[in-house]
Amino acid sequence: MTNKRLKIKLDELYEQYNRAEYIHPDPLEFLLTYSSIRDREIVGLVASSLAYGHVSQILKSVAKVLDAMGTSPYTFTMNSTRSSLKKIFKGFVHRFATGDHVSDLLLGVKMVIQKYGSLNQCFSHAFSEEDTNILTAMGFFAKEMLSWENDPGHLVPRPEKGSACKRMNLFLRWMVRKDDVDPGGWEDVPASRLIVPLDTHLYRICLALNLTKRKQPDMKTACEITHAFRRIAPDDPVKYDFTLTRSGIWGMGSVPEKLISSSVHDR
User: Fold this and answer.
1) Is 264 in the same domain as 252?
2) What does DSSP assign to residue 132?
3) pLDDT digits (tens, 9 = 90+) for 254-264
4) What integer pLDDT is reported at residue 264 of this predicted model?
5) What domain count does the chain have?
6) Which of 188, 205, 232 corresponds to the end of one domain?
7) What pLDDT, on the 0 to 100 scale, is given for residue 3?
8) N or C: which end of the chain has fewer CB within 10 A?
9) In a shared domain, residues 134 and 43
């Protein structure tokens, strides 16, 4: 399938399914209840960090953390101490994540905000318009989140280790892009530099569409797939992520399959 033909089909899917009514069930929905960007960026980091496993359990776990944080996650975080966080989240478990991991994630958030003013400003501190993507800024952001004798474990991935950092890229998609699904708010980071939040589902689709030939869904593969999407949508290479990865949950699992089938017949 040519890039022009693929773009036509992807845009058709985007127009049809990239709508607010298709968000549930998705941890993204938690962000939409917060109008303040200082609350939303914290909620986004919490929700994306716990976005692994069965979606029903993800929603329960994120809701449990946010319920403990009250009406303003920002105020809660900035008024918390290491000991108070440990006490509040004692006994919390989400698959491999414990209450200590969540506590140390929020401690990192607090310290970064105290140093830079916001999570956005921390990330932007290391981003340059000359960067081809946000990988350098991601590495800096993760390093700063881990600089306070805290250990959030796998909740804060390190890009330099080579994994696709799917959950961190998902967080950045939510914070940077703004359309009927993604709420945005980080206006100083261009959507054109984002990297696709690559999981095994999207990886299989992209393999079938011949957007990559790499053997594993790591960071190099995520960047290669992003580059392929950038040829189709230069200003917004992550535009189609929601549509392609959510169709199975909506009960429309045939959507990517139809796209793949069209690609095969067009070759």
Assistant:
1) yes
2) S
3) 556 666 665 54
4) 46
5) 2
6) 188
7) 87
8) C
9) yes
